[in-house]
């Protein structure tokens, strides 16, 4: 257990430092948005490109990973939607946002650093690329289309899907993945000075992304009936989603063992950082922020337990 804590402890220590620095005024939440833009627009695209371009195309494109992660995310999304509609009696838009919180992890800012600590940056980069493809082309557009079908958003379901596609086309991380696939397929290599420059951007990703997560959580409060719903979403994200992905990993054809473990760990991290922002359009940002805070805090214990199980029974 001490060995596992030695892996997860520094990760959550950086999150805590980000929270403390923002809570006590060394930085403010506006600074976190600037740092986050740097990670999303420069560091993560560089990291994704490097991780993909340096390996053979057949090693990078992992259809079993995509299937396990995509179908597991769909199962978690539908279970969240069902709970919110049938049990919590929420409207369709709120139910879709709850399902999104259970099905779409923060693979970029938390999943990658955790997987990189355990399995190394190459496996983490490939896992992140596969996860981002599923999230951006499937999970997020589906959840937002369901939310828009309630009339709580702007426009029709078709309009929501078109907005999602436009957002994807402008996403630097997606372009980093595409460029990496092209270089991997044709076995191209960057000139050494350019490759070193890209690597310098990539190495800034891990610690800064964790710091941003901590700073973004400063000032969020959980109280009243919001706490109950936040707890259910946290259970769905930290337990149901990775269990669904694990079941599919065991049922689908085998892939490299480290990738099997990486996809489960990736599914076990808290929901994505923009979760409250996506929920804001439908008027559910308070619930989403509370769920994000509770899930992030609880994930220290659930991820530590998961990594202990992986080390002792599955590695």
UniProtKB/TrEMBL annotation:
GO cellular component: membrane
InterPro entries, per the entry: Mem_transp_PIN-like
Location relative to the cell: Membrane
GO process terms (BP): transmembrane transport
Main location: membrane
A Pfam family: Mem_trans
Membrane-spanning intervals of the chain: 6-26, 38-57, 63-84, 168-188, 200-220, 232-253, 259-278, 290-310
Transmembrane among keywords: yes
Keyword Transmembrane belongs to the record: yes
Entry keywords, A to Z: Cell membrane, Membrane, Transmembrane, Transmembrane helix, Transport
Membrane topology: Multi-pass membrane protein
Annotated PANTHER family: AUXIN EFFLUX CARRIER FAMILY PROTEIN, TRANSPORTER AUXIN EFFLUX CARRIER EC FAMILY
Protein name: AEC family transporter
């Amino acid at each position: 257990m001490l060995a596992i804590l030695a892996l997860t402890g520094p990760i959550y220590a950086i999150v805590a430092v980000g929270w403390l620095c923002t809570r006590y005024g060394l930085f403010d939440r506006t600074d976190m948005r600037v740092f986050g833009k740097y990670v999303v627009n420069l560091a993560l695209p560089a990291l994704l490109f490097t991780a993909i371009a340096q390996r053979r195309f057949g090693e990078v494109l992992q259809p079993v990973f995509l299937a396990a992660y995509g179908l597991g995310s769909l199962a978690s999304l539908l279970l969240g939607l069902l709970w919110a509609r049938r049990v919590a009696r929420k409207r369709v838009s709120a139910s879709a946002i709850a399902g999104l919180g259970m099905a779409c992890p923060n693979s970029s800012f938390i999943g990658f650093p955790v997987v990189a600590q355990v399995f190394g940056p190459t496996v983490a980069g490939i896992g992140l690329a596969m996860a981002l493809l599923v999230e951006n082309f499937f999970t997020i557009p589906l959840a937002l289309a369901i939310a828009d079908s309630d009339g709580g958003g702007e426009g029709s379901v078709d309009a929501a899907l078109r907005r999602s596609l436009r957002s994807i086309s402008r996403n630097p991380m997606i372009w980093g993945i595409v460029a990496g696939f092209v270089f991997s397929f044709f076995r191209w290599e960057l000139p050494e000075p350019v490759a070193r420059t890209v690597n310098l951007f990539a190495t800034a990703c891990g610690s800064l992304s964790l710091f941003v997560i901590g700073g973004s959580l400063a000032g969020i409060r959980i109280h009243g009936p919001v706490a109950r719903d936040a707890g259910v979403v946290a259970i769905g994200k930290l337990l149901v989603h990775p269990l669904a992905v694990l079941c599919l990993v065991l049922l689908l054809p085998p892939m490299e063992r480290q990738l099997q473990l990486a996809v489960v760990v990736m599914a076990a991290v808290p929901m994505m950082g923009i979760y409250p922002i996506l929920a804001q359009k439908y008027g559910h940002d308070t619930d989403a922020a509370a769920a994000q805070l509770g899930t992030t805090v609880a994930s220290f214990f659930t991820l530590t337990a998961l990594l202990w199980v992986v080390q002792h029974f599955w590695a």
